[in-house]
């Protein structure tokens, strides 16, 4: 490839062809040299807000499950099966949307995902029985599952290398915030209305898709990789214009430093590429981590409120305690967001998993209510730190042509774990009690930690193209 660069001002070189300045390596270089300004933060904020709404949708069942069990007279096993329907939908959504986003684009798939979870929320409100509610949660979960890999691809492809890990970790930080909001909203609706009105309220944020439609551009990295050079150049030029508007007076953009081009024949995507060469090892590792991390996480958190109610606490009181415990997730994701850049993705991920295992086991064997709260706070600190690291790490492992597919498939495998987790806890609880439930979760986290320590690669400080070269 001819080594053409942009001048420090940032526009296309006069006389340079669009195909040259909009090649995938040049687009990547032009994106990575940009400073992090209010424009990229706006795009990030929009994606993070949608992520926040998703967290409310999924987390609300933790707080509403007790009331739903009472209304429909569900056994623990039936309640666990109901909880698992969301994760079945997420499995299907994540598996389909990743490949769809790599084929037809990130932006369109992201908008479609919001339509599905909005319709699912409305259906939950009208569900006359537990079976219908399960189908509604399946649809809602499908939409949420669609969103995850696409959101990760968008953020990872827009944020410069030096800030990428931090912002991906912060993105996941909106999850505990949404979980806390779900608890507060559930408390309000359970106090003044019922669980049905809570689901109806969750449908309203689906209108946020119009914000995505008008303010979030298609990924120029994806456009360039697809050979759509003119579109990539148009989007990239507009991004540079928006960034330049937000620079201090007289500031210039750095010149891009593209990596050597890779032959087009080597950059065609197929699902089997996830299993070729170095990617096979990465795929095995990240699938094991997602499966066991989510099995443990959702197996425990979906039942937190119900377990407290089983010990004699009212719906309202148990909701208050779960929200209190979830507050520790805020410093957890902040710590992880700092560590992934200061220390690295691999070590931080292992630390958060091992910390989650120790805290989960201690929580399940707490000798008093005070220690239950203390261990619960520690557990949530590590759990949400784990989430932040996992979401920062996963999209970095694959190239642009298969990034959403790789992240989507990993998420889908994780959803199998999250599907099994709540149902498995519903079976374990009557036989082994709370101690057995949390020992199961702790063991899952240990297996995930071993996988990342033995098979993981470090991606800290490396461009996406360098990692996949």
TrEMBL record:
It is a multi-pass membrane protein. Residues 43-460 form the Major facilitator superfamily (MFS) profile domain. The keyword Electron transport does not apply. It holds the Pfam family Sugar_tr. GO terms for cellular component: membrane. The keyword RNA-binding does not apply. GO terms for molecular function: transmembrane transporter activity. Keywords: Membrane, Transmembrane, Transmembrane helix, Transport. It comes from the Bacteria. PROSITE patterns: MFS (PS50850), SUGAR_TRANSPORT_1 (PS00216), SUGAR_TRANSPORT_2 (PS00217). InterPro entries: MFS_dom, MFS_sugar_transport-like, MFS_trans_sf, Sugar_transporter_CS. Its main location: membrane. The chain crosses the membrane at residues 42-65, 77-96, 108-128, 134-155, 167-187, 199-216, 284-309, 321-340, 347-363, 369-393, 405-429, 435-457. It is found in: Membrane. Belongs to the major facilitator superfamily. Sugar transporter (TC 2.A.1.1) family. This is Putative MFS transporter. It comes from Hansschlegelia beijingensis.
């Amino acid at each position: 490839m001819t080594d053409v660069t942009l001048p420090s001002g940032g526009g296309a070189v006069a006389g340079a062809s669009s195909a040259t300045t909009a090649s995938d390596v040049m687009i990547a270089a032009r994106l990575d040299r940009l400073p992090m300004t209010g424009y990229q933060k706006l795009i990030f904020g929009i994606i993070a807000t949608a992520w926040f709404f998703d967290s409310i949708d999924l987390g609300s069942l933790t707080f509403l499950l007790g009331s739903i069990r009472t209304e429909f007279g569900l056994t623990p096993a039936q309640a666990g099966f109901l909880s698992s329907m969301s994760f079945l939908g997420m499995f299907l959504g994540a598996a389909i949307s990743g490949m769809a986003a790599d084929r037809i684009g990130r932006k369109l798939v992201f908008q479609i995902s919001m339509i599905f979870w909005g319709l699912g929320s409305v259906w939950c409100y009208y569900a006359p029985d537990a079976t219908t509610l399960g189908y509604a949660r399946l649809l809602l979960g499908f939409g949420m599952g669609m969103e995850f890999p696409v959101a990760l691809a968008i953020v990872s492809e827009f944020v410069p290398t030096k800030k990428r890990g931090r912002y991906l970790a912060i993105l996941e930080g909106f999850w505990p915030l949404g979980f806390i909001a779900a608890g507060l909203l559930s408390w309000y609706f359970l106090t003044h209305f019922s669980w049905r009105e809570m689901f109806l309220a969750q449908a309203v944020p689906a209108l946020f898709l119009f914000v995505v439609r008008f303010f979030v551009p298609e990924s120029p990295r994806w456009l360039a990789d697809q050979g759509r050079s003119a579109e990539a150049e148009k989007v990239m030029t507009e991004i540079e214009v928006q960034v330049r508007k937000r620079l201090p007076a007289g500031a210039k953009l750095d010149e891009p430093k593209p990596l050597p081009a890779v032959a087009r024949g080597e950059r065609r995507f197929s699902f089997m590429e996830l299993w070729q060469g170095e990617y096979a090892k990465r795929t095995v590792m990240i699938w094991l981590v997602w499966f066991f991390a989510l099995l443990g996480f959702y197996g425990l958190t979906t039942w937190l409120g119900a377990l407290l109610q089983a010990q004699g606490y009212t719906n309202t009181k148990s909701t208050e305690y779960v929200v209190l415990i979830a507050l520790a997730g805020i410093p957890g994701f902040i710590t992880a967001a700092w560590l992934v850049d200061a220390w690295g993705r691999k070590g931080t991920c292992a630390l958060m998993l091992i910390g989650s295992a120790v805290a989960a086991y201690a929580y399940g064997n707490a000798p008093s209510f005070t220690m239950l709260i203390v261990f619960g706070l520690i557990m949530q600190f590590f759990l949400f730190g784990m989430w932040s690291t996992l979401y920062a790490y996963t999209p970095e492992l694959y190239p642009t042509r298969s990034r959403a597919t790789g992240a989507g498939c990993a998420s889908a495998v994780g959803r199998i774990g999250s599907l099994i987790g709540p149902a498995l806890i519903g079976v374990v609880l009557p036989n082994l009690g709370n101690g057995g439930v949390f020992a199961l979760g702790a063991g899952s986290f240990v297996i995930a930690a071993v996988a990342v320590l033995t098979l993981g690669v470090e991606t800290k400080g490396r461009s996406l193209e360098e990692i996949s070269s």
